Amino acid sequence: MALKPFVFTTASRILFGYGSLSKLPEEAAQLGKRVLLVTGGSSLEASGHRAAIVRGLEERGLDVAFCEGVEAEPSVGTLQKGIDLFREAGCDLVVSVGGGSVMDIGKAVACLSASDRTAQAYFDGEPITRAGSPNIAVPTTSGTGSEVTKVSVLSDHESGRKASIRHDAMMPALALVDPELTFSCPPSVTAASGMDAFCQAIESYTSIRATPLTDAIALEAVRLTGRAVERAVENGADREAREEMALGSLMAGIALGNARLGLVHGIAHPVGILYDIPHGVACAMLLPPVMAYNMEASRAKCGRAAAELGLIDGPSRQDGAEKLLEFVAGLNRRFGIPERLSDLGAERSDFAHILKDGMVSGSTQSNPRPVDEAGFLEVLESVF
Ligand SMILES: [Fe+2]
């Protein structure tokens, strides 16, 4: 059978491995002179990494301005604040060091810095016509894969809407992944972000937009994250587990950046914002019911993934997809992931809102089994 034509893009350059962070200053110096350093909470500071990064950049002769305290599920207002800081300081490069929310803000600030419209206008769908400055993304969690995507997910907390801005110019010029930076992640964050990575690996592997390139990368991401996530949660100092999670989440990010995701992410966005739960927790709890919904459509690939994870003897066994689902449910139980939406205070009257937001999502439209309104509601009901 002839292959469908496809395009594959990722960050221009990827630096991976323990010790990579020491290369940040020389890499940054090749891309700009005045850096806006975008960071999140205080853990980067407590670990001493923030001071070392600033010192390293300054020693290379770079000026550093700061955009600090980017929150989880970042708002359109935070993006606007970042753009204002970038312009006021006359920056020409963004370096974002943090979790997905921090990198999402950093990428969007760099891209939109050249434009004259507000962040709100772009959130509302204004097309981006001018590419701004380059950005470097440095993840401190193993989860979102945002370091290798051209997407920024933002929340409008007033309207309860979550939407993404995407543009080729948002793709990091450099993704710098040093597993050492994930050591300060507490077990709860390691579990939530790790399940996001695992879910993204599964969803990009089974997506209708998957290609031979994304398949190879996504399957390895399933294997790496599926095998390592529990070890990384149990012992945050396990160097091998941290390394496998960092590599697995990077690979899942590369896969999803090209193959998109599936119904888990279509539902997780409105659910995350509505019940104020971390993105990874929403993904983890929705993965088993969506896998059940997709069972026949993705049976062959889930069987292959189950074999890679050692859950069955070989991909020819018929019950691989069921074994994979049991494996995910077991991880969720051991990580204390809530099982039902009603445990989060959900009411059936919320379904209309979740449906409206989730049905139009590009993730929902990439799901292996077509999703109509009845199918969407069937999944919500099964996890209610
Ligand atoms: Fe995700």
Verbal overview:
With about 375 residues, the protein is an alpha/beta fold. The protein has 2 domains: about 15-180, Rossmann fold; about 185-384, Dehydroquinate synthase-like, alpha domain. Helix content is about 50%, strand content about 10%. The chain contains 16 helices and 8 strands. It has helices at about 25-30, 45, 50-60, 75-90, 100-110, 120-125, 185-205, 210-235, 240-260, 265-275, 280-295, 300-310, 320-335, 350-360, 360-365, 375-384; strands spanning about 15, 35-40, 65, 95-100, 135-140, 150-155, 160-165, 175. The strands form 2 sheets. A 6-stranded parallel beta sheet has the order 1-8-5-4-2-3, with helices on both faces. About 55% of the residues are buried. The structure holds fe (ii) ion (FE2).
Please supply descriptive tags for the structure shown above:
384 residues; 16 helices; binds fe (ii) ion; two-stranded antiparallel ribbon; Rossmann fold; alpha/beta; globular; 8 strands; Dehydroquinate synthase-like, alpha domain; six-stranded parallel β-sheet
What's the arrangement of secondary structure elements?
Layout lengths: L12 E4 L7 H6 L4 E6 L3 H4 L2 H11 L3 E5 L8 H13 L4 E6 L1 H13 L6 H5 L11 E5 L11 E6 L4 E6 L7 E4 L9 H20 L5 H23 L4 H21 L3 H13 L3 H16 L4 H10 L11 H16 L15 H9 L2 H4 L7 H11 L1
Parallel strand pairs: 1-8, 2-3, 2-4, 4-5, 5-8
Antiparallel strand pairs: 6-7
Bound molecules: fe (ii) ion.
Fe (ii) ion binds next to helix 7 and helix 11.
Give a short overview.
With 384 residues, the protein is of the alpha/beta class. 51% of the residues lie in helices and 11% in strands.
